[in-house]
Design brief:
Distance between the termini: 13 Å
Radius of gyration: 18 Å
Largest sheet: 8 strands, parallel, barrel
Order of helices and strands: EHEHEHEHEHEHHEEEHEH
Strand content: 15-25%
Low-confidence stretches: none
Number of strands: 10
Shape: globular
Length: 278
């Protein structure tokens, strides 16, 4: 079964997100743990969580993805920014224990002139502070487009972070199609080659989720501008090959395209139909 959904607003709670997902034909979804620009998170309503878990089981909603705020930068040159990132991630992960088996995705961050090696050390240090044995959430490093001083522009940078973390079993990768395309990986003409390289460097077993996005940019542009499915440089055919690839097809696929709910519903219908034909 194809597990596909989109990014939903968590403002109304987990049960509301579950109902919204089902209404557009989704069986997974992604949500921000708090305002994407940072700040405090509202208290978790455990009754809402319990109602959601029952609803999800009844309606076949699989593993979901929580997304850290964009302001989380564990490799900043500013100690106060790093402290905010550490406190925020620790709080998010503790709250996610109420949703056992969830995924927590974050952008590795920007080293802002310190150099990639120093940035990698700082991100790994943050992860070593916030992960604990037996936690029920898997933390995902997202593949990035490589704009500016952004970390995660290559599989090697992601591997370097993982190598420095003690609890490696708690870490995975979220593969973003727009980002890897913009980073220079040719998923349009050589998906098997890209996945083979990812397997060699990081290990495909670490890939736990996929962001399915088209791109406004040519391959290697390092710009990170998402496009609706079929309207960008990647194209529908290549994205269908991603979601039906034997190494990926059982993972949760989350759309982050520039859409409202009706647009997401149309893209979910399109990709489901194309996946069945493949």
């Amino acid at each position: 079964m194809l597990h596909i959904g989109c990014h939903l607003s968590a403002a109304k709670g987990y049960l509301a997100m579950g109902r919204e997902a089902v209404s557009i034909g989704a069986n997974t979804f992604q949500f921000f743990t708090r305002n994407p620009r940072g700040g405090s998170a509202k208290a978790v309503d455990e009754r809402d969580v319990a109602a959601y878990l029952a609803f999800a089981e009844e309606n076949g909603i699989g593993q979901v993805v929580a997304h850290a705020p964009y302001t989380l930068n564990g490799c900043s040159a500013d100690p106060a920014v790093r402290d905010f990132a550490t406190r925020t991630m620790r709080d998010d992960l503790q709250r996610l224990e109420l949703l056992p088996g969830s995924l927590y995705n974050f952008h590795p961050g920007s080293h802002v002139g310190q150099g990639a090696e120093r940035g990698i050390e700082l991100v790994a240090d943050m992860l070593n502070q916030v992960l604990w044995p037996g936690m029920r959430t898997t933390v995902l490093l997202e593949t990035m487009a490589g704009k500016g001083s952004e970390l995660g522009r290559s599989f090697e940078e992601l591997r370097a972070i993982i190598d420095r973390v003690a609890l490696k079993e708690q870490l995975g990768i979220c593969l973003d199609t727009c980002h890897v395309h913009d980073a220079g990986y040719d998923i349009v003409n050589d998906l098997d080659g890209v996945l083979g390289e990812l397997d060699r460097v990081v290990g495909l077993a670490r890939v736990k989720a996929v962001h399915v996005n088209d791109s406004k940019n040519p391959m290697g542009a390092h710009k990170d501008r998402h496009e609706k499915i079929g309207l960008g440089a990647i194209g529908t055919d290549a994205l269908v090959r991603v979601i039906t690839h034997p190494a990926l097809r059982t993972l949760p696929f989350c759309l982050e395209t520039p859409n409202e709910l009706d647009g997401y519903a149309a893209e979910i219908r399109l990709l489901k139909a194309r996946a069945e034909e493949a």
